[in-house]
Amino acid sequence: METVDGGIAEIHLPAPRRRCYRRSSRPVVPAMNILSIQSHVAYGHVGNSSATFALQRMGVEVWPVHTVQFSNHTGYGAWRGRVFDSQMVREVVEGIAERGVLGACDGVLSGYMGGADIGEAILEATARVKGANPAAHYCCDPVIGDVGRGVFVRPGIPEFMRDRAVPAADIVTPNQFELDFLSGTGSATLRDAIAAIDRIHALGPRVVLVTSLHTEETPGDALDLVASDGEGRWRVRTPRLSLSVSGAGDMIAALFLARFLREGSAAAALALAAASVFGVLRRTEEAGARELLLVAAQEECANPSLALTPEPL
Questions:
Q1: In a domain, 199, yes or no
Q2: Cβ(233)–Cβ(313) under 8 Å?
Q3: Which end of the chain has less neighbouring CB within 10 Å, N or C?
Q4: CATH number at residue 94
Q5: What is the pTM of this model?
């Protein structure tokens, strides 16, 4: 401080310090990242439109790559849009790889493929992810058909799923129709279903989740879900709801993968994922909606209101 003419003190303040921010060359990534390659619709919740938000609501970062872009799911009988070719999938994955983040990818999720050529692109993407992160898991939802509807995918896809995709997967999530097709046997009884699951294990996957199972032992007002990791098998049973909506299988495959990665347990993943999907379906049924009320019932994804106890088989 100095005194100048007139006795007024002049205060000299130090020059402001400049803060230096160093730009990091490494992207900031959250705790879990999942590359999800499957269909997408603008209206409704199937494929990535179901899986992405459900995972994000759990706090998982999702990198969605679409195999198709439709206006709505095909169950309406009419839709607009197109199936993308395999090169588009490869280009998007290449762009992600150029960001240098594949080593931070914890899992790859695939669903409806649209064509066997897209399936090859998905397997290539999975190989790239596992090359960068050997601990990553590939979860294949082998979308082929359903009980009462039969096969509803393009020719060649069922065989691709059985011969190429399922053997490459760590986790598979077939429904009962797909379980029977992939195993080449039936599942009329629980014993038959377990034998079919063992056949799936023999193809390569360590973890199998049957997302909807009704055997001779299942009560008429209930639905079973069974998970197996080769060391144990567990079942949860939920009330059978009367609604018919699409997208629940896509949602449970996504949540099961994320829960398995977090919990490290097929039994825990089964209980939590099944409870979440049942909560969303129950809310949808109560509202009489034709599409999953995924946004309205989003809390179910992170904190399911129903507590399920896995039953060892």
A1: yes
A2: yes
A3: N
A4: 3.40.1190.20
A5: 0.89
